[in-house]
Amino acid sequence: MHATRKLWTWLAVICVLSFAVLGWVGTEIYLTAPPIPKQVISTKGTVLFSEGQVQRGQEAWLSAGGQQLGSVWGHGSYVAPDWSADWLHREALALRELWSQRDFDKPFEQLGVGQQGELNGRLKSEMRRNTYDAKTGTITLSPERAEAVAQVARHYISLFGTDPSLDKLREQYAMNAGSLPDPVDLQALPAFMFWSAWSAATDRPGESDLSYTSNWPHEPLVDNTPTAGAGIWSIASIIFMIAAIAGMIFYHSTATEEGDPTPPKADPLFDLKPTPSMQATRKYFYVVIGLILAQVGMGVITAHYAVEGQSFFGFPLAQILPFTVSRTIHTQFAVLWIATAWLATGLYIAPAISGHEPKFQKLGVDVLFYALLFIVVGSTAFGWLGSLQHLGNNFSFWIGNQGLEYTSMGRIWQVLLFIGLLFWVTLLGRGLLPALKKPSESRGLIAMVFLAALCIGAFYATSLTWGPHTHYSMIEYWRWWLVHLWVEGFFEVFATAVIALLFTRLGLIRATTANSAIVLETIVFLFGGILGTLHHLYFTGTPTFVIAIGAMFSALEVVPLAMIGVEAYRNYQRSKAAPWVQTYKWSILCFIAVGFWNVVGAGLLGFSVNTPIALYYMQGLNLTAAHGHAALFGVYGMLGIGLLLFCLRGMSDRAAWSDRLLQPMFWSLNIGLGMMVFISLVPAGIYQAWASITKGMWFARSPEVVHSHLMETLVWMRVPGDVVFAIGTLFLTLFALRLLTRGQRKQPAMAPVAGAKRA
Length: 759
What we know:
Domain Nitric oxide reductase subunit B cytochrome c-like: 37-218
Pfam families: COX1, NorB_cytochrome_c-like
Strand order of the largest sheet: 2-1-6-5
Keywords: Membrane, Transmembrane, Transmembrane helix
Number of strands: 6
Shape: globular
Transmembrane segments: 230-251, 284-307, 334-355, 367-392, 412-433, 445-466, 478-504, 516-539, 545-566, 586-609, 629-648, 669-690, 723-740
Oligomer: single chain
Protein name: Nitric-oxide reductase large subunit
Largest sheet: 4 strands, mixed
Helix content: 55-70%
């Protein structure tokens, strides 16, 4: 008990210090972010962009699809360009061509080597010189550069408008004509795009060869190349990671752990009678399966848009379901069904652990279910409607689609979801309270479950921190608090504690061992994970020390994965501990799969794009998508399915349970995911990385690469994996339908049979 108390103290200290540093970093980002000009003018006094247009352009881009329609500073979708890289390249080419025609009366390509070298040198000097005047809030450009900016602005106005000459390019970008029907928005959009590119190439005040985005994106024309810090801290982080892994292995090899207890002769939960509130969670899990099916369907459509940008096998689907909508639903539903599975698990296990059914608990579970269903349906429908009908910036922010990846639902829905999560924490706390009050060996685990749940409810408040006019650097700062800390942080702590608690209830691990292990694991995870959030923010207009902190601490996120294989093997052994454990075979195998995908998806693929030097070239390319698919579904998705199966086991008639359906479900999902990632996404990401390194980010995201024969072939090579994966979801659906139609039938009394016992 004394040792565990010390671990809790260390956990509290680490959390307080880490969040203090993360908050300080946020303050520094706010103070040193790229300045938003009041005006952009030429030296002749011509006004290119007026006050408020940069912010209005940001709102316009987000309402048109935002991070679902290309990306800015590398964050967003992969079919359309990264607009900051695209604008920067187009402006540099336009300016160089203007000089060539003016000075030599020839196109640049026809000039001699000396003349080209002269113009290239002048171009780098012009594009990197910072002409922002903080006193007046004005950026001043030379007349030639002002003309180049005007040329690129006309291109963007035509692209986001209805110019028929750009129809082919729109199809390649998977965007529809008339993305911004409001003339004011259409005129303001180029201001935001110019500003994002200006921030990416212009030297910071008092610096040379160092832009506000630490020289991202790679663009040789303007000397945008990796900084020395990106390389140094990448090397340091790898050394630090290897040393930490060695330390972890040494600790585990020298630490003495009690072995697993002798398992009970019979299932300890066999006679558990689900309470009314526990039974009420059944409908949550059926909604989870429905969301999985919808997410997979939208994923198929979204992937196909990478080949046919506006059609689905010739059918003009984009007229009613554009890429921005299908991808929004695909990414949003992934988070929603995983979160719903974990929330429902908490509501199910609370009375089971405490042995107490609070008054009106079932009513609370029912009310929360319909409230969450209302939020899911409402946010999806209004997001779809707002995108399709172009209902404007205010509608998009408040009730439609905010245009931010993984956090796309409108602000009203976010507020309602925040209230719903607080209500969930209240229901969970009511259910766990008797167990928290009662001294027991498991009380530390139960406390960890509740504290993680409390953080899940409280930290969703970070989705309410930005407004429609918030600086884009700060939006990214707070968005990654939500995506990284909420989804990847506290939800994982919650789920890990729940699994440990379930294993102790089954008598497969000792409660005393689990208490210490789960606190120690949380310490290791959050020590790297909290400040590791910064690895998403290397190139989003942040101070250079963000690269140092983010690189070193995100490397520590890999350290716990060094022992995942050992834990997976132990879980496999536990699945064979006694004949009755086969009842939970597929839940345990899902937990083992979580370990595998933690190593492969979060570890290998995650760290491949994690260091500053790697991310510099690969941010916003398909290697990021490979990591995202393998980690999000492989880790969090399989964890959600494992918990779903465990809970349904306890609420279902044993005769309705079918391992024959679960076996192909499990293997199809995992094999299909592996095929999808390693046959299609990883090769596509490697090819794009080569393009980014050799010519620049603009090239890696250009139609020349994205719609090359090789890339489109790799998209088609996703089909086998997608089909195998979809088969797995169908087996899960058939399994659930079998439980629904047969699960309530009363069976005659019979002796318990191994492999078919009720949990």
